[in-house]
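Take a careful look at the sequence and tokenised backbone pasted below. I need to know what the token row says about the fold.
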Amino acid sequence: MGVDIFTLLLANATILTVTAFAFFAAWQGQRQEVYWQSWIVANLTFTAALFFLMMPPSAQNNLAIALANGLLVFGFGFRWRAARQFAGRSSPLLPIFAPTLFTAVLFALPSVFDFASVYISVNVVLAAAAGFEFWRDRQDALPSRYGLVLAYGLIAVSFASRAGQGLMLGSGLTSYLPQDTMLQIHLLVALLHTTGSGAFALSIAYGRRAVALREVALRDPLTGLYNRRAFEMRLQGHLANGSRDFAVVIFDIDHFKEVNDRYGHAAGDAALCVCAETIARTLRPVDFVARIGGEEFAAILPEISARRALEVTDHVRRVVGAQDINRHGHRFGITLSGGVVHSAAAARDMDSLMQAADTGLYRAKNRGRNRIEPIAA
């Protein structure tokens, strides 16, 4: 092939070093994300390993060979650790140090282990180290995750092929790093892996951060529920998808101003949080609840009849009314009024549904509060 081994090793080392600096820059803006540190350690470790491999043959003694291959395994171990940290899982050091030590011992004792067994063992370890952690969390549907899976899949196949080469050559393998076409192909694959894994690591981190920021923008900071914007987006989605048999509910805490006036705004905030938690916990898992105003909450109840929607909503009212709120020595309770409208009882647009639910709410207020009023067709 046209590119020599040294040039391919140097290209890989250069990209790894540049990417390590990119990871360092990313870490400066996200100090709480420890996976950046693991990615930096991994890349710098790989770079060190490659420089040992670039040494002239006359300088490559057993110690240099052991260090180079031990560092490769160590680097993939920290890639594994970074993936675990990115997913929020535990990231123990033993699964990193044990294979590293095993690899170093194999190369440090050439009189005990022949080249073929060492060559096969190390490449199997490296192939096994690639990519599973990124694959297992694919449900987040971040596009960059599939790029990482592909990058790690390519290098795993390449390492596995080299292990197969060791099996075929057997006693004919006389060098720990046979200078052949297969090595050139492996280093080209490694170059693709190095470039792709670095780029996609940056991309997936910032992609997840963007998703988190969008989620924050759709959340009420006090109660943690979704906000009005998120509620309207969800309701528009139901209407756009042609969903049938769903209900819209608007709740309002009765006499909320009196809670603030009598017990203070901190007690009012506590009442809002207790109400939000109780509504979310009491509704069905498929239901969607949001805080849409000061003391107003709204919910979408999919796949439900008008009668069942009233039963569910009234059950929420009773559970909220049974809560005992304790704030700075003040014990008090709250009640809810609500209006509920089924999708079959109003024109199928957001304004009509919200106005109908609002009508039910005001009717409940006018009829004594602490009640739910349905809007019938």
